[in-house]
Sequence to fold (190 residues):
Amino acid sequence: MTDIDERAARRRVLCAGVALGFGACMATAGLAEDNPAAARPKAGDLLVRFGNADPAPLTPDDVAAGSKQIFAWAMDPVDHTVRNGSRLNGVLLIRLDPQDMSAETRGRSATGVLAYSAICPHNGCEVTEWIPAEQSLYCPCHASKFEPRDAGKVLDGPAPKALPALPLTLSDGKLVVAQPFTARITFEQG
Fold:
């Protein structure tokens, strides 16, 4: 076999591997379509508290003003499927004074309640901490801080981008997803 034949053979194997990987990736992407619990939150979904065995829709009063964030999932209002089939669907809720929010952020809130992805865009850890003195969200894995009053922008740390927001509205006094996340939920691999 000549060098040219060997390179062509390696190229065919590499291309076959890429095609196989792409097919597996596409099959995985199709899981969200086949599994409603893995589908991303969508307009009209209700929000329910993370970990509740009996998911009751959350209201603004369930999110205490200025205190630690709470974790939630979206729930289909028709068939009550809780969208907890992917950790990327995790939502954190915080309630702040609308007067302290940027105009963009205030437009995504429901009576001061804000919703952001619970997944840090740095390495995919969960944003689990609230710093009351700074009114900022904090990821303890690598010390990224986020500004919930200004579109979830990065205040400090290695996170490469803001937390994706989940615009909210109210319906019958309940917190409802107004639109999908403002950005795709991704994080750096590393």
Notes: The helical segments are 3-34, 103-106.
